[in-house]
Specification:
It contains no helices and 34 strands. By secondary structure, it is mainly beta. Strands 21, 22, 23, 24, 25, 26 and 27 form a seven-stranded antiparallel beta sheet that branches. A four-stranded antiparallel beta sheet has the order 3-2-1-20, with no helix packed on it. The chain has a four-stranded antiparallel beta sheet with strand order 4-5-6-7, with no helix packed on it. A hairpin with a 2-residue loop joins strand 21 and strand 22. It starts with a strand and ends with a strand.
Length: 422
């Protein structure tokens, strides 16, 4: 974890249990406050409300540079590296603002707050968290500032710094009055002190995923179309990604073989902190049930499997699953949208074993319908539609499919969730 100290104008780091503390940066005469980590590019960002700047450096404190200058009184800072955005709180204007990581296109996200101090992002769930040390509470909202809610409302004294570990389900915060760094579950339960005696503790950040895989795969799916198989997949981030070998496994007499066959290679993007999409066409697949997986290879030759093996990160069903002998689906199905999370467009695929009257609509989390995507009779088969959420704010949405066979023999209903991230 990393934190700033407003008394000695330094940036520190230590292990998550508080041991092995070391000084990374000294800014004598200035006042570093909020701090945030970009674990993709190995950078730490902080706000200085004497210099009225947002600055950044390498994790070890080297290569200090200005990111945004000419601000009013920045206190907290948080970086969404994948989206190329930096968020900060401003104590003099009582706002949360954001801009591109180069400081351009600044805009207000929330205004009229009592006393916003530090801010942290949970991009996995499209949320931002911040502390307010006038009403001594921790709040959260969507990344666009909508749906504000209280997370911790009692037991805080003078909270300043905050960070969120979504993988561990924890909130960490510093308290400027008690000189402590504490943590709790995301719902505010199980509060515990982990660092004590830290004078004037303020900004705080946690490097909660140092062993992150070089490539983060967010989706992988296969589609049978006219006797060919189209594989599509997407990555959220890439580090030293040389590329992907595509492997295939075929079943015999209902049992999958233990041997995997390499059938192709797709070159990776090397290093990337933005989503990348890939596809591969298996033009001559054998008959029978098939499974596919990806062998992701780093530039140093190390590799990781994604697909259908027991230790895989993403499961891919057999490409002929739910297909009858005549090539039509054997059952109704509404698939997970792809990509997910998405911005601003995503695709939704569904299967009909019979000609059916279908209704597909999108709802917000309050159950209000916000868009009707399909409401008509459709032939038996696999269909796909596009959903454009350009006019919607970040957050979780629900899409529901209802279907009734035109011959009255079958009915079907299913609900899935999807996440829009701006």
């Amino acid at each position: 974890m990393y934190w700033t100290d407003g008394t000695d104008d330094r940036i520190y780091r230590a292990n998550l249990d508080g041991t092995s503390r070391e000084t990374l940066h000294t800014s004598t005469g200035n006042n570093p406050r909020g701090i945030s980590l970009d674990i993709i590019n190995g950078k730490m960002y902080w706000a200085d409300n004497v210099l009225d700047k947002i600055q950044r450096a390498n994790f070890n404190g080297s290569n200090v540079e200005d990111v945004a200058t000419g601000l009013t009184s920045p206190i907290g800072v948080a970086v969404d590296a994948a989206a190329g955005k930096v968020y900060w709180t401003d104590l003099s204007t009582d706002k949360i603002q954001r801009a591109n990581v180069d400081g351009t296109n600044a805009e207000d996200v929330l205004t009229g707050l009592p006393s916003p101090q530090h801010i942290a992002l949970d991009t996995d769930n499209g949320k931002m968290y911040w502390v307010d040390n006038i009403d001594d509470k921790i709040y959260r909202a969507n990344l666009d500032g909508t749906v504000v809610e209280e997370v911790i409302t009692t037991g805080l004294t003078s909270p300043y710094g905050i960070t969120v570990d979504p993988s561990g389900g924890k909130i960490y915060w510093s308290d400027n009055s008690t000189d402590k760094i504490s943590r709790a579950n995301l719902d505010g339960t199980n509060v515990e002190d982990i660092v004590t005696g830290q004078s004037n503790a303020r900004g705080l950040a946690v490097n909660y995923n140092p062993a992150q895989l070089p490539v983060e795969l967010t989706s992988f799916e296969a589609l049978l179309n006219n006797n060919t198989v189209k594989l599509t997949w997407q990555t959220a981030t890439e580090v030293n990604n040389y590329g992907f070998e595509i492997e295939r496994q075929q079943s015999e007499n209902g049992t999958l073989n233990t041997e995997w066959e390499t059938i192709g290679f797709v070159k990776g993007h090397g290093n990337s902190n933005s989503p990348k999409s890939y596809e591969f066409i298996d033009a001559n697949p054998p008959s029978g049930n098939l499974q596919y997986r990806l062998k992701q290879i780093d530039t140093d030759g190390t590799f990781e499997y994604y697909g259908t093996t027991a230790d895989a990160n993403i499961n891919v069903t057999s490409v002929l699953e739910n297909q009858s002998a005549g090539g039509l689906p054997s059952e109704f199905n509404l698939e997970q949208n792809y990509p997910n999370p998405f911005n601003p467009e995503t695709r939704i695929r569904y299967s009909l074993p019979l000609e059916s009257m279908i209704n597909i609509a999108v709802y917000n989390t309050l159950g209000q319908q916000i868009e009707l995507l399909e409401n008509k009779i459709k032939t038996a088969g696999t269909h796909e539609l596009n959903f454009d959420a350009s006019n919607l704010s970040s957050g979780v949405y629900i899409y529901k499919m209802s279907a009734e066979a035109t011959d009255g023999s079958n009915r079907f209903s299913k609900i899935n969730k999807m996440l829009l991230l701006r």
